[in-house]
Amino acid sequence: MIRRCCLLITVMAIVCAAQHDRASGIEGFVTADVTASIPNARIGVDSVTKGLHRETVTDASGYYLFSELNPGAYSVWAEVPGLGCIVYPHVVVFPGQIVRQDFHFVRARPYAETCEPIQKKVK
């Protein structure tokens, strides 16, 4: 019985350590409809509370990835010239989790300005 408990505790510790070591992040695809990918779409991730602002562009298949994010809530946005801007203001990342957040621009509105989030001062 004691050996089983020790084995169970050891296995649980290994699984927890493996989950903790995995990177956290946000990934997804940008499309103009369900199947048409959009390369070079501008993607951003922001966390006012963490003071984080990062940007990237999608690859040829419309894919993007923000890796090595700390757990927490983020605002994630995508901008495509001529198609508009989509913002998801509260995407939650948990430890060791890669969150999938796709952008489908059939739902976007024409947007004349940039998609840059408004920077708020943290008190």
Portion in helices: 10-25%
Number of helices: 1
The tally of beta strands, per DSSP, is 8
Binned strand content: 35-45%
Give the helices and strands as they follow along the chain.
HEEEEEEEE
Q: Uncertain runs with pLDDT below 50, 5 residues or more?
A: 15-20, 118-123
Structure write-up:
This protein is of the alpha/beta class. The chain starts with a helix and ends in a 19-residue tail after the last strand. The model is unreliable at 15-20 and 118-123 (pLDDT under 50). A hairpin with a 4-residue loop joins strand 2 (42-47) and strand 3. The longest helix is centred in the N-terminal third of the chain and has 20 residues, at 2-21. The strands form two sheets. Strands 1, 4, 7 and 8 form a four-stranded mixed sheet that branches. The chain has one helix at residues 2-21, and strands at residues 25-31, 42-47, 52-57, 63-66, 72-80, 84-93, 98-100, 103-104. The chain has one helix and eight strands; from the N terminus they run H-E-E-E-E-E-E-E-E.
